[in-house]
Amino acid sequence: MKRESKRNYSTDIRLLLDFLSSREVEWGQATQQDLDDFRDWRCEAPENPQRISGTKWDREAAAFTKLFRWGKVRPLPVDVSRREDRAADSVSSRVSWLAPRTWGLWSDIGLRGHTRTGLPAPGWDSRTEMRNTSFVQLLLSSALRRQEGGSLLTFELPTQRLRHGRYCHGRIAGAVTRSKNSRVFYVSVDAVGQVEAYIQSERAWAVQRAQAAGRYERLPEMQLITRVTGGLKPKVQWVDRNGVIGERELSRLDWWERQRLFLEGPEGPEPAYLWLTEQGLPMPPERWNGVFRVANLRCETALLTEQERKITRDFRLAEVRGKSPYATPHSARHSAALYLLIVLNQLMETRYGLTKAERRDFTLLFGDPWWLVKTILGHSDVETTKRHYLAPVAHLQLESILAMTDNADDGSERIEDLDGVFSRLARETAGIQDIDALLGGVAS
């Protein structure tokens, strides 16, 4: 399993082992009654001040099922494949969206150090500003997951433009995806340009400092890339410090394997890994959680009063919580998916002016917007896209909302129309953060 899953599962299993130990029950001797009692304590017992949701229980049940199957415990005390062992109220609680303008506000305050008035905050340290902002724009433009976007190599950054030149397309390695299948991804030229600017400035400086300090020479492992083959299944060839030659398909390289890869640069070896720390070393994907966490705190400091900040986010009133944007790496993926759905609906309803019959024919040939978004997100089933990402806005009948927008040809007017759509969605749907709601409608 992946490292993050191992960490989550081991935490869940530890709680169960503590529970069974308190009953003086060996885990290999646990019964269904023991697990039923544990589930009741975790989810239902009034005496438990930290009861969990149905979604959390389903994850724990999956961890326990793997444990007991590995231990060959029969009969299984819990089996997540059994309906009765799954929670009936399990829903996706991680879905969150920010409207495009709200992402701009969050980035300006949280990543660029601006104040609420849009001016740079006194004493702002911008050493990693370009890295952080370009990573966020990459996720917002491509709908990649944190690990997918966070484990790119420098030569995997898309450079081939599509027909009209506004987007580039690349290929994400199957080893870093959840499905373990490679897929094509699309990213805007502007986002690619920001990443290239980071490579030529902040990243180059970090590499130079690391080379001068001899950090790369002290690394226990280094695989210097000698060749990257072409074709449908490109391979990376390298040689390590001991002169041992290695080779592996690019799509099969996991993120931690990628961190050992280096390229020969003008001043010596430098990481092939795209995202680097201030020390010039590859940045593990989970480190981005800390970047987002600090940015959220900066937004709270700038937009909330001292009294409002004394109460932790989970216990704040909805009115107070709605004053400050809150984002995670996965929020960028959700927001990109929502944006894609709205744009696709606008194209089919207003730009193309399709009748019901024509839309049916278009759907048969190319798929409906849900299917197209599902393909871009890399889901195996379109129902996953609807259920976990965009279902909360399906009832809004986007066709009628978008029909109210102007069919203007000017690019700036189209952007304003989309901003209006997002504002309306934010007013009528829970979970979408919009700048008008955050700043009381005074922002533009």
Describe the structure.
This protein has 444 residues and is an alpha/beta fold. Helices cover 48% and strands 9% of the residues. The chain contains 18 helices and nine strands. The protein has helices at residues 3-22, 32-43, 54-70, 100-111, 129-142, 146-150, 189-213, 255-258, 287-303, 306-309, 318-321, 329-351, 356-366, 369-377, 382-390, 398-402, 411-428, 435-438, and strands spanning 97-98, 167-172, 183-188, 223-228, 235-240, 245-249, 261-265, 268-271, 432-433. It has a five-stranded mixed sheet with strand order 6-5-4-7-8, with no helix packed on it. A two-stranded parallel ribbon has the order 1-9. A two-stranded antiparallel sheet has the order 2-3. Strand 4 (223-228) and strand 5 (235-240) form a beta hairpin. Helix 5 packs antiparallel against helix 7. It is globular, with a radius of gyration of 24 Å. The protein starts with a helix and ends in a 6-residue tail after the last helix. The model is unreliable at 395-416 (pLDDT under 50).
Which characteristics define this entry?
alpha/beta, 18 helices, five-stranded mixed sheet, 48% helix, 444 residues, single chain
